[in-house]
């Protein structure tokens, strides 16, 4: 690739990086304001926990709907 092309791509990537960094910083502040002590880290842990609980409920519901066959 030519130097001009590489410089244009680099500039685009730097702009994208700046935008994403600003967005993550904003989300970090927002989650802390909502009471997540460690910001996004805490929000992520809470979301994973909620998904695991829902998944376990789904498994229980399926087990109740389809009890094992007895011999």
Report what the structure shows.
This protein is mainly α. It is built from two helices and no strands. 0% of the residues are buried. It has one domain (3-64). The radius of gyration is 23 Å and the shape is elongated. The N and C termini lie far apart (71 Å). The model has no long low-confidence stretch (mean pLDDT 90).
Helix content: over 70%
Low-confidence stretches are none
Report the portion of residues in β strands. Answer: under 5%
Q: If you average the pLDDT, what whole number results?
A: 90
Order of helices and strands: HH
Through-space gap between termini: 71 Å
Number of domains: 1
Q: What's the assembly state of these chains?
A: single chain
- Radius of gyration based on Cα positions: 23 Å
Strands, count:
0
Q: Which class of secondary structure composition applies to the elements?
A: mainly alpha
Instruction: Please tally the helical runs, counting DSSP H or I stretches of 4 or more residues.
Output: 2
Shape: elongated
